TrEMBL record:
Stored InterPro entries: Cys_rich_dom, HdrC_iron-sulfur_subunit
Alphabetical keyword list: 4Fe-4S, Iron, Iron-sulfur, Metal-binding, Oxidoreductase
Keyword Metal-binding attached: yes
Any Pfam family the entry gives: CCG
Entry's Gene Ontology cellular component terms: plasma membrane
Domain Cysteine-rich: 61-143, 185-272
GO MF term set: 4 iron, 4 sulfur cluster binding; metal ion binding; oxidoreductase activity
Species annotation: Thermoproteota archaeon
Name this polypeptide is given: Cysteine-rich domain-containing protein
Length: 299
């Protein structure tokens, strides 16, 4: 059904039938190569100078940061880089453009494919064996969309940061700080992760491995999880609908008495944080890498 809907959207888009609230997003993608309408040359302005200068031109891993983590939720990008540095991972960054996911979702396949081809060229130039992502939408795009939608022989292995870290935990390469207090949290499954690429176990296993974390499940979880309301261009075209959906999700978290909602998608974090604020409820919304980085010790 998802493929049929996307094909229908693409047909409508090609004929000029799409919500005009998306015009800002479309303009930003074509002119700035990101969804935040920010200068491309400032994409890595959050990166400490000493880290930027130490990055090799080629490495085993490429960390694909994504638009929102580069411009809006730099806390996610910073935490991911700090984790990679603490674990002495051989990684580098590339001259990335938007992964293309938002544009495939709204039917602008041409722009999405241009972005994807640019990114593949840069990944190849870095000589990497793996691409690491910390965004669920980027993960879906690089792992699934690139393989299905591009007529290219792709030779890239895509890992979400939670998958990489889960393997490190199993190999006892991760040292986590001990705490006495217990914090009750819920994990929110982003649609792109749970519904489209079956990524729901690694984030949960990581949370369970963190001392002092008690993971509770919301009523709707994994493949049955409710959307945060922000995907598919809704947050740009119909923000009132997005807020209604995200508020429903926050209410589910309130119903099980957790203090934090953890996710792996900056768009989900943004949407759920807005709902928590609008409802006046004391629930903190964080990304998994932020939580892990707080407890992770350098190896």
């Amino acid at each position: 059904p998802a493929k049929i809907v996307e094909a229908f959207k693409a047909e409508l888009f090609s004929k000029g039938f799409y919500p005009k609230g998306l015009n800002t997003l479309l303009e930003s993608g074509k002119e700035k190569h990101n969804v935040c309408f920010e200068p491309h040359e400032e994409r890595f302005s959050w990166l400490p100078r000493e880290v930027k200068e130490s990055l090799p031109k080629q490495a085993k891993y490429v960390y694909f940061v994504g638009c929102l983590s580069s411009y809006r939720f730099t806390n996610i990008a910073k935490a991911t880089v700090e984790i990679l540095e603490k674990l002495d991972v051989d990684y580098t960054l590339i001259d990335e453009w938007c992964c293309g996911s938002p544009f495939w979702r709204i039917g602008d396949f041409k722009t999405a494919e241009e972005m994807a081809m640019h990114n593949l060229k840069e990944i190849s130039r870095a000589g990497a064996e793996y691409v690491i992502v910390s965004c669920a939408d980027c993960y879906r795009a690089l792992k699934k969309d690139y393989a299905e939608k591009l007529k290219e022989d792709l030779d890239i292995k895509v890992l979400h940061i939670s998958e990489l870290l889960q393997s490190f935990v199993k190999e006892n390469k991760v040292k986590l700080k001990k705490v006495e207090s217990v914090l009750r949290v819920a994990y929110h499954d982003p649609c792109s992760a749970a519904k489209h690429v079956d990524l729901y176990h690694p984030p949960r296993e990581l949370l369970k491995a963190i001392p002092g974390i008690e993971l509770l499940e919301m009523l709707h979880n994994k493949k049955g999880s409710f959307c945060c309301g922000a995907g598919g261009g809704i947050t740009y075209a119909y923000p009132d609908v997005a807020l209604k959906l995200s508020s429903m999700r926050i209410q589910e978290a309130l119903n099980i008495g957790v203090k934090q909602v953890i996710s792996i998608c900056p768009l989900c974090e943004s949407s759920l944080s807005k709902a928590s604020e609008a409802l006046g409820k004391p629930i903190e919304v964080l990304d998994l890498v932020e939580v892990l980085n707080q407890r992770l010790e350098r190896t």
